Amino acid sequence: MNWFPNYTCMACSCEIQNSTNDYLCQKCMDHLPIITEAQTGHYSPFAYEEPIRSMILKLKYADNGFIAKALAPYLAAVYLKEIAPKTKQPPIIIPVPLHRSRQRERGYNQSETLANELATYLNLSVVNNALIRNRKTVIQKHMDATTRANNLHGAFSIEPTQLSRIQNQNILLIDDVYTTGATTQECTAILKANKVKNVIILTIASVC
Ligand SMILES: [Zn+2]
Questions:
Q1: Fewer CB within 10 Å: N-end or C-end of the chain?
Q2: Ligand 1 center to 164 CA (angstroms)
Q3: CA of 14 to the centre of ligand 1 (A)
Q4: How far, in Å, is the centroid of ligand 1 from the Cα of 75?
Q5: Which of 72, 68, 138, 153 minimizes the C-alpha distance to 108?
Q6: Which domains does the chain have, with CATH numbers?
Q7: Which residue stretches of the chain have pLDDT < 70?
Q8: Where are any strands of DSSP class E within 41-128?
């Protein structure tokens, strides 16, 4: 047990008193929406529910690198349990990119922060600039899966100077939330068109 009288919970912002975790209060720790059933096609440690939802929003809208540090072990656990046993050649980690102007506004890409933390944790290679987002895509909540997919068509490309680092490699694609899968599918398509071996999708949380 840890005692951090001046620390606040990164999900609910209460003062952490007695908790088994350095970053979350015990109440939030006890309510983590852990996914226990087997997953196929994509992997996530959590459902997109509280307190994870708040943590992801904070990860996105404030420079909270420590949240990525706290979430990386959960990504790593899913990787080691579900992905590593099925993947002979260790993958290269690639984050889903933001558009350059959005990254400049925000100062960083939350998926890149997660990818870097996970790479350090698992001792895997990460290539942050392999995928490029060609335009700012606005995903609206009311869009159905087909509209989202059309909206993203052609949104990504590969940085030519990074091609040799990713070809014939397994790719572990990292994003914060899996919603309809439109974003990761579009990234997968462009990666596969550029002759990567296999693309495995790992996100912190999954809506479905
Ligand atoms: Zn809390």
A1: N
A2: 44
A3: 6
A4: 20
A5: 68
A6: 1-31 (no CATH), 33-206 (3.40.50.2020)
A7: 1-6, 62-63, 139-140, 208
A8: 46-47, 92-95
